[in-house]
Design a protein that fits this description.
homodimer, alpha+beta, Nucleoside Triphosphate Pyrophosphohydrolase, 5-stranded mixed β-sheet
Chain lengths: 190, 190
């Protein structure tokens, strides 16, 4: 009796080339259960990530401006980063908020987690809301970081999302759990 | 006179190792304008992507179930894929919708585009709404695909997002432009 498609694809071999900084590439040889065809598919073994929607006591949102090497542009994002080995996602969220913005929060809400891209990443990104945030010290940047922190009103943040100024998918995923990001669908067609 | 931080990081050299299936890795040697420190940073040169929120004449949403090699799980996503070289994003959206679901739509709305991850990708993902979709033929799958298409009510889709059953960040980013995905923030803390 055959199981309903789509089924998991059996893996016949796994090869690991040189580590790529943030990732460990892995080549799996898999078989398509629908066709029997065998093929090599890439997996990027990736540590889990975390990001934080941080709302100040004043109601403003903390935004992190930094130069990004992939897009070669300065982006406006929410605080976040890599979860250390063995580190709890909430602990990582508190640490990244403190290091990147100098802030602590009085109330934390777990917003769940997402898959950054299940086609090739094996990791998850955890989203948190940090409410009642306030400045408690300076940023703690390492030599590989250059960050400017800004506080944006909810109106400015939503407007920046709708206009594409804030456009990192993982930032949008986190924000969509806190803010209504729907567009006007009755405007001009594509 | 120094410009305000963060500034772009000068690139001193670029090396390209073996192509990785979906990506061309590139090592850039860059300098942090804040500290003067030089370091190697990874860029994955990546073609642009597209995905489609497809709403049937009945009001239901088209969901694509497939096995994903990164997460090693069957996911529920909206239709989408890679934009071919020289292909228009809307043309790619129409093509992916047709190939992956057998459907065409009567109204297309450009929902804008996002950066999948500007930290290391140099590409964008274009989001579209395909409204008034209807089945016009069979799926057109290549040997490397195994897909099941389902039609979900809006209620089921939103509930699946809130419960984490639909959790691909690029899918959530597209859906957040059409549906209200906010969570109950007054529930239990983290």
């Amino acid at each position: 009796m055959s199981s309903p498609s789509p089924r998991p694809w059996p893996i016949f071999s796994s090869e690991k080339p040189e580590t790529l900084h943030l990732f460990q590439p892995r080549w799996d040889t898999v078989e398509n259960p629908r066709t029997g065809a065998r093929m090599r598919r890439l997996v990027l073994e990736t540590p889990n990530w975390v990001n934080v929607v941080a709302r100040m006591e004043s109601g403003g949102y903390l935004m992190v401006l930094q130069y990004r090497f992939g897009s070669a542009q300065v982006t406006a994002e929410i605080p976040g980063g890599v979860i250390d080995p063995g580190e709890d996602p909430l602990a990582a969220a508190r640490r990244e908020l403190r290091e990147e913005t100098g802030c602590e929060a009085t109330r934390w809400v777990d917003l769940g987690s997402v898959e950054p891209n299940p086609a090739f990443h094996d990791n998850r990104c955890h989203h948190f809301l940090a409410d009642g945030a306030r400045r408690v010290g300076d940023l703690e940047l390492d030599p590989g970081e250059d960050i400017v922190v800004e506080e944006w009103s909810e109106e400015r943040l939503v407007s920046a999302v709708l206009e594409g100024e804030v456009d990192h998918a993982l930032v949008l995923s986190a924000l969509s759990r806190v803010l209504d990001l729907r567009r006007d669908l009755d405007g001009a067609g594509a």
